[in-house]
Amino acid sequence: MNNKFSVLGLALALSLTACNNSESNKSESASEQTHEGHDHALHNTSSNAQTQTPPAQPAEQDPAATIPTFKFFKVKSGFGFENADIPSGKNTVFILFDPSCGHCQQETQALAKNYEKLKDINLLYISMNDPSLMSNFLSSFGKELDGKPNVEMLYDRNQDFIRNFHIPSMFPANYVYGPDGKLKSYWVGEKPIADILAAFAQ
């Protein structure tokens, strides 16, 4: 039971820090990005405030090296979607996102405009949000992706992703696995669309 609450706590913390990469963060290093999670109001001129430090955050762990066992649920039908349902012979990209995240919306818009370059890649959008919040995401921000056979919108009802794949520091988080199920690359936050397309196809 304690483990369940700790995972749910992590999920809540993740939702609170989601989409935390503003325009000013584009040039920040990884070490600077970990700095952004605390209250910048603490940085004032009083000596009292200067001695305060942000709460320690757990170090981000590496993602699963191979696609772990999972069970997600298709948003439109409610049917389960498991490892065996991934079409074989192509790269599979898991995109962990929050429907309200502006950067997630922007990435999806950019991907949709480049659908012709993504036709041979499995794109799996994953979210722990209520399915009602996810149902119109693609029709609103990625019309060219909506209804395509290689694109799935999946509800992570049991927090399988953060339990078994990875706990990212921000959204969107992209994970590229090869046809053999092995991790090729991953990143969190913003990335230029040309770099995203290259990583998806590598």
Helices, by number, come to: 8
Helix content: 25-40%
Shape: globular
Proportion in β-strands: 15-25%
Number of strands: 7
Strand order of the largest sheet: 2-1-5-4-3-6-7
What is the structural class? Answer: alpha/beta
CATH architecture name of the domain at 71-201:
3-Layer(aba) Sandwich
State the fourth-level CATH superfamily of the domain at 71-201.
Glutaredoxin
Question: What's the story with the biggest beta sheet?
Answer: 7 strands, mixed
User: CATH topology of the domain at 71-201, which one?
Assistant: Glutaredoxin
CATH first level of the domain at 71-201: which class? Answer: Alpha Beta
- Distance separating the two termini: 41 Å
Radius of gyration: 18 Å
The chain-level mean pLDDT equals 81
Give me the oligomer status.
single chain
Query: Residue ranges: pLDDT <50 for 5 or more in a row?
Result: 1-9, 21-57
Q: How are helices and strands ordered from N to C?
A: HHHEEEHEHHEHEEH
Description:
There is one protein chain. This protein is an alpha/beta fold. The chain has a domain at 71-201: Glutaredoxin (3-Layer(aba) Sandwich), CATH 3.40.30.10. Helices cover 31% and strands 17% of the residues. It is built from 8 helices and 7 strands. It has helices at 2-17, 30-35, 47-50, 102-113, 131-134, 137-141, 160-165, 193-201; strands at residues 71-74, 80-82, 92-96, 122-127, 151-155, 173-177, 183-188. Strands 2-1-5-4-3-6-7 form a 7-stranded mixed sheet, with no helix packed on it. β6 (173-177) and β7 (183-188) form a beta hairpin. The model is unreliable at 1-9 and 21-57 (pLDDT under 50).
